[in-house]
Amino acid sequence: MLILWFVLVGVVLVLMAFSSHLVQRLPLSPAIIYLGVGALAGAWGLGLLPLDLWQHHQVIEVITEVVVLITLFAVGLRLQLPMVWRAWRIPVRLATLGMVLTVAMIAALGHAWLGLPLGAAVLLGGILAPTDPVLASDVQIREPGDRDAVRMSITAEGGMNDGTAFPAIMLGLGLLQHHAIGAGGWRWFAVDLVWAIAAGLAVGWFCGRWVGQGMAWLRRQGHPLESEEFLVFGLIALAYGVALALHAYGFLAVFAAGAGLSAIEKQRDQRADPIKDASQCSRLDSFSGQCERLSEVAVVLLIGALLAWVEWRWELFVFAAVVLLVIRPLAVYAVVRGPQTSGAQRRLIAWFGIRGVGSLYYLSFAVGYGMDPAWGTPLAGAVLATIASSIVLHGMSATPLMDGYHRRR
User: Fold this and answer.
1) d(CA 354, CA 324)
2) At a CB cut-off of 8 Å and minimum separation 6, what does 119 contact?
3) CA-wise closest residue to 252 among 81, 401, 133
4) Model confidence over 268-310: pLDDT tens digits?
5) 3-state SS, residue 258
6) Could you say which of 99, 102, 173, 346 has the lowest number of CB atoms within 10 Å?
7) Domains and CATH numbers, the chain
8) CA pair distance 318, 385, nearest whole angstrom
């Protein structure tokens, strides 16, 4: 199965390279094409990728984990936001209070509509609450330093909430007796919430700034960095490994590492050659962006192949519609206020609550903890139905909505 997946990824990449000029004219995102190819290659079509979530969850978890790590680093590198509350206010609110509200509403919907037990409903909320930085490329910031409120908010939120969703995941697993949360939840609060988030951000920020200072020192010595791929993958591995060793959230660490490195690049030594600096920073961002786009192909093919595994019922479509059309807007309008955003900007932020690769990672992660198929099967079906609906709806609407937004601006 893995060999066929590699072959399929290779074929899709080659075809997309030759037909990119045609794809760009279509009123849909490339992710919709990847999803369709994956479904065709799965059990619904040619049967080349007969994926089963329970049987192949380890492979799916590793692939999605790597993809999310690459994307989070690229997002952090691209942001270049100053370390002031005004710049981070909207993303932080979305990734904290907005995350809590989203988890609670999805959990209530999962319990009432799908009949999931409380722990499974909380787990479902944690899996689907984070927005996806991988599939949101059409609505993210296009280059470092972009300060558009919509693009910046969606980008920064996606970078942070793939890590801040972990406490909800661990709480759900704890309520299902698959994870120790302590009497009254004290261990969950102290370790899984406070320590893991704070330590993850601190580790990543330190690693990113440390590597950035090393790059600045090399420039001053007349030896600018040449191997961007070593730096990208090395810093991702360093931040992620140290965070996991300290029982912190590695996703947050990798995002913070990219942001820390970006902050050093923004404040680089004026004695360095600005032309070389700009070229080097551009190459670093370009390489991480290419890795991000290649990763998208690999994972969306998996999502498409998994659709044949779902036990499709009309209740799943209703669930997905409520999550995307009701719960996301309610959470955004509850936390995004003030003169920083207009009504049109809030509507766009509310609409583009894209679900995707991060949710698939959390789903396979939870399966590895020993989900009971009795409630795990409808839970997984709800997750995959929401992801597929998000890819189609947001993929078709991203270009026209954002084009109209920029024309009005």
Assistant:
1) 8
2) 172, 173, 174, 175, 176, 177
3) 133
4) 544 444 444 445 556 666 766 677 777 788 888 899 999 999 9
5) helix
6) 346
7) 31-408 (1.20.1530)
8) 10
